[in-house]
Amino acid sequence: MNRSVPARSEELAVHRRLMRFGEAESLMTPMWEQHATSVRAIAGHLASLWDVPVGHDDGGDPLVTEKGLPHGRASVLNLLVTVVDEEAAERVVRTMVGLGVRHPSRAIVLVPQHGSDGPPIDARISTHCNDVAGGGDRVCYEEVVLTVRGEAAEHLSGIVAPLLIHDLPTHIWWPGDPPWGDPVFEQLVEMGDRVIVDSGDFTDLLGAMRRTSTLRRRSGVGDLSWERLGWWQELTAQFFDAPRFRRYLPNLSRLHVRYALPPPASRRHDEDQDVAPGTPAPMAQALLYSGWIATRLGWRRHRTIEPLAGGRLRLRLEGRHEMVDLLIEPAMTDDVRPGDLLSVRLRSLGETGAAEFIVDRDGDDAMVATNADGMTALLRRVPMESPREPELLSSQLTMDVVDRVYEDALRAAAILLASAREAAA
Amino acid sequence: MTARTGGPAPGQHQRASYDDRQPRPNPLREGLRLERMAEPCTMVICGATGDLAERKLAPALYNCLLGGFLPPEFTVVGFARRELSDDAFADHLLEGINEFSRNRPAKPAIWQSFARGVEYHRGDFDDPEAYVELAKRLDRIDRDRGTAGNRLFYLAVPPALYPEIVNQLDAAGLASPGDRRRSGSKRGWTRVIVEKPFGSDLDSARTLNRELADVFNEEQVYRIDHYLGKETVQNLAVFRFGNGLFEPIWNRRYIDSVQITVAETVGVEGRGEFYDATGALRDIVQGHALQLMAMFAMDPPVEFHAEDLRDEKMKVLRGVKPMSPADVATNTVRGQYVSGWVEGEKVASYRDAPEVEPDSQTETFVALKLGIDSWRWAGVPFYLRSGKALPSRVTEIAVQFKQAPLALFARAGVPQIDPNVLAIRVQPDEGILLRFGAKVPGQGLQIRTVNMDFRYGSSFAVDSPDAYETLLLDAMVGDASLFTRDDEVERAWEILDPILDAWQAGAGGPLHFYGAGTWGPPAADELLERDGRAWRRP
Predict the structure, then answer these.
(1) Does A297 touch chain B if contact means CB atoms closer than 8 Å?
(2) Entry pTM
């Protein structure tokens, strides 16, 4: 008889951190693992999953059955993830343990191995169940990992289509550098309502930003690097919620953004490492942040003061009332994730003199200061924990509309980068 | 060519600025997730050393802070009689957070930063000088911390103290919005939050409203009922008006009856004196149950704004006709629990509870049959019940739909199928359940009732904000949608006063007794059986 087993401790750790459930329990059914299987067999197994009682560890209630069972199957979306290898697939699976409770879904992880010999499809299917807050209830969702080889790897959409739960939105998460122009990528994107990328993973940042800005899906494009900026944007906007400081906004004359770059030969140990570890484009967040401010305030490109070199650039932008000095520069540190912002300084010229608005990261906190009206008016400490990938993804999965503000910021970021690069060339 | 009507003369360069009096929206806010950012303000908690501040307000403020909903200028001033330093008051709030917050313990660095905006103002509520000093303090805070003259007074004190406090606030010039203040900051808003109970009958409610109205405009007054801050109550409007499926059937044509249950397992638990003077009708039905009913039954508002919502709720309440004494005897049941067992524990009789009169006639259970005289609801009975020491803690609205017009499967030996039920659970498992009949697989025709069950916990397994977080933020933002307006309060009493009067006069039927741990007296069941219906067992 099959027995349920507690999910691995690291999976639970992610889950607990994400959901703050304290003693939440995550259980998974035994893996259904088939070498050289077929789409029909996989679909058949997925359909049967919810009929089969699976004994609980303590011999009590069955863990998973749909009919007459105490545990609910909830599905709110399909999530398709394509990764380069089995190692990345493992990390996706770990991420999903945390996501499953908030976004009960059918997650299909695809590992295409184009040049590989062997059977076309290997499949691993498991059902994860999580106790939900308040106790008593347990929500289950499915996870499918498909290794697809040879010619079949050229036709992933045909393999995936019969396995999606119908009438639910389908999100495509593409960790790493998307293979722009690849027919397989195009096909999968075509199946999705929303595509989620991480611009920090782009090898060719400028080219990929431009490509991303041309993707048109029903629910648009999500970007984990953009999501990482959420709290920075909030803190920045808060400066100008107060009417007395909002008057400084049209007269901003300087924006200085610092971001983290790992020291050479340093590799930060991180137990919740991203699915695509390493950050080929650590400048992405700083550019997106600058692009966001620029588009919200109507700044335009004027000229390059310092072309891009060593991750640093300096541009002159034309604001509505002032010329704006934009400086983006890295700072060597391995205290935070590469690419994360370290500080933002906005300087403005108001009627009563200069004002400065500062967010300065300090570990898991940040110091937020406003120096305006001739005094250090406000100094406060706020939380600034780096969100982990499951949290970012979870937040992105709740979005079902096109994020125009992101799209504007992305286009502006590409323009800023192009300006600095053209000057360098 | 058009004539210039204002602005700088041609060629005259001026530095751009936003007009403080009519600030443009913050352009950086567009598209951000946190759209409900509170305005810079000072929150003055009157009765700051009490239970409410510690258990509810401090955790709610801290969670709003963590969520990024509080602006950097936000300042708290505790106002109470006890001698306390600023630090000691901040520690009092911190203790509340560390014990009662859903995010606990507080992060030291974050708290210390927040605590710099926490002050304590000692004073007696009847001492005019205390308010004069409070006004000076608030002006100083406006200058030092940029709170822009915005003030939120939270009256966390017994209602008997409201008149004293609001009159003293007025006398000190603290009740007016900034543009009408006599001294100090000339900008900003002033709002006041008052806690239920809003009176104990129509006369006392009118008196209270009048006393508040003597000092504040109605739009400055936020009457808080934490039930209305719950997610499911807010979802009622989304469920009804955001889905095309339900609104067409939300009327007398399709709905047979509605049951609203607010059940508690606890007894009076140390509130004997208060409860014995109050009873279930005043404690639960006046606020929670009638508000749930109004939100359930209201017509779609023209816009989703506070006044439109409250206008629609008010129309529902106006449609509920007050009962005659004879109606009270027929359509109400009151009960009081005697000893029994609830959740495995023995519960003593209500009359044996501390501070309860040994011959108390106070109802701990009430069941009512109400109707709404409106085009939409005429003839649909609304059954309300609420009680203490009941078998389970549950708040729900259950809609029973009419039977299918023809018993089509009767010839196949299938009796009439149970009516469809839509149950909207407010607590504890917030969610929505739909019950319908389905064929049992196999040869022949067998029909079984099945449930389609949506639970918030299952589909949105995230910590919902506590009702106080939602409501405090609403008050800071100026959204009164989830607060009760003066006319709603008075109308509720107009509905309930005749019941109280009839009971008082002995004309409204006897006080029934029920065992703790049961669903009320048998008379409550008979109230529905008479109509060919039965209470749900939630």
Answers:
(1) yes
(2) 0.76
